[in-house]
Amino acid sequence: MKRSYKIIVLMVILTIVTITIAFLILSATGISNKNNSEIISNSKSSIVPKTSLKAAHQLFISSMSCTSVNFCIALDSEGRMFKYIKGKWVYTVQLKDGVNMLLNSISCPDEQLCVAVGTSIQNVSKFNGYYANYSNGSWSNLINYRRSPAGLNAISCSNQQFCVIATSDGQVLYYRDGKMTSQILQLTATPQNSEYHSLMSVSCPTENFCGAVGNNGEAYTYLNRTWSQGVKLTADSMYDSALATINCLKDGFCIAASHSGNVYLYRNGVWSAGVKLVSNKHQMIEAVSCASDEFCIATDNSGNVYQLSNNSWSTANKISTYPIFALNCSSLIHCIAISANGLVLNYSSDKWSKGINLDLLA
Predict the structure, then answer these.
(1) Model confidence pTM above 0.70
(2) Phi/psi at 16 (5° precision)
(3) DSSP state of 128
């Protein structure tokens, strides 16, 4: 299988939610309502207005992208979108393409464009990639990307003309000017029967500099329109040593983290040795974000945050009982994290505080 820990967790939750919703609908009506005017259909894809959502939906916030301290969009695995603007979170729409559709990542280079990517899981060994874009104030329907028979794990856009997508088959794809290009580049080696050649995360702060990491424990950098060979950061390619996430800054700095809880810093073209953050083997680093090369936040699957300041990492600070996949630090004094169940957590003046739960908006 070519799935990350997050994909597996999302599948389990999605199955439970689907069964719950089906039970509630059958209990209330006895039959499905074929004339429900609240759902707008268009071929296989649809955008579902807020009024058609039921309280039975359980959020699983999988990604968030912020252009500034004043604008963010958070993504739920089932395609529910939440926008932060003018100091307030609001629910917008739901992108939907069947019960097996999982949306994994979103990137917004500015307030006018966002692109979301995901995976439709046909079975344990077959994936389809989907994407949708936000432009002129509205979302497109989900589009099946058929050139690559792989799931779309992550996306990063430096501007409206340059986005890079990481796939479950270890490829990078390019999204330019509102559409996918024909460029496909294989980054990871693909030994026969290997599960460890999936690209898990990508970060492109500029059109000339990107970083990407794979579950094979290798990191890749993009400079002068050329991707480097993989640099092995973890000790082996076992799942718990897979690299899970990366965040890069315009000055050429990156931070990468492994599921086993190690973080690695990239400075002046060289990766550092790993620093262990977590205290036990059940904790996994899920997200990292930096406002500078001297200030970073990392989150794990137990709801802990870790802070890098003055070249030293803090111990775990528990701010949630749920995993945290969505994280963004827009400045040295401002970060937003969202737990998987939708609780917004704000960092300001060196303290974390609880905000709204997005589940109440949906």
Answers:
(1) yes
(2) -60, -45
(3) E
